[in-house]
Amino acid sequence: MLECVINVSEGIHLEAVATFAQAVADDLLDVHSDPDHNRSVFTLVGTWAPRELATHVVDMCNLNKHQGVHPRIGVVDVVPFVALDGSTEDDALRARNEFAEWAASRLNVPCFLYGPERTLPFIRKHAWKALMPDVGPQQPHPTAGAMCVGVRRPLVAYNLWLTCPLDVAINIAASIRSDTVRTLGLQVGEFTQVSMNLIEPEITGPHHVYEQVAQRVEIHHAELVGLLPARALAPIPRDQWVKLDVSPQRTIEWQLAQRMERLRNRD
Length: 267
Hints:
By secondary structure, this protein is α+β, with helices and mostly antiparallel strands. It contains nine helices and ten strands. It has helices at about 15-25, 50-60, 90-105, 120-125, 165-175, 205-215, 230-235, 240-245, 250-265, and strands at about 1-10, 30-35, 40-45, 75-85, 110-115, 145-150, 155-160, 180-190, 190-200, 220-225.
């Protein structure tokens, strides 16, 4: 089975987010929206739902009207395919390539590819400058921009909310950045934030980065964005779950089991 964690540049108009979620309800494991980032993260399974979601978002959203603190190059900004148990990285790579070809031909949206070729941060830095799309038009879609379509291993998207000045948050983000942790320091309303992707959560998990940041500044609260693999939860002491905003119910495996139960009951 493949997971697809689509990041959409809409987190303010929740009626639109609800419409998107309803369109892919059978294959939706989780949706997380943030108005300051103006971004929603949809955790999906399979290859049909990502296309259905992308179609609705491109129809309804306009990048030219978007404001939010998170970097983005399109209304359907990031489309990573992840191999879960029973699938291989080759399966995910095939799904990535087929999705990019479909998005370019059906939606006329250019796609930058990441995975074996390059990282997502590389695309963020070089898109439309030293790097042109791998698939589709060589200019942005007039309202949808472009898509970053990739393949990756399961990761943990994680935010730590702070009350310190932005320059302090940026310095903290830089200080904990590593081969296993990607970070941004952001201003989010009255708070600042260290926003992270824990790309090898078995090595550096939520409890590790929480303690690293807590040694430097007081943390207001933690926020798990989307789901985490059960193996990333396993080493975290149970008495830290609430503080770290994690639980068994927030794992990919738990939500997959819930989805199967819903489908069985419906049939």
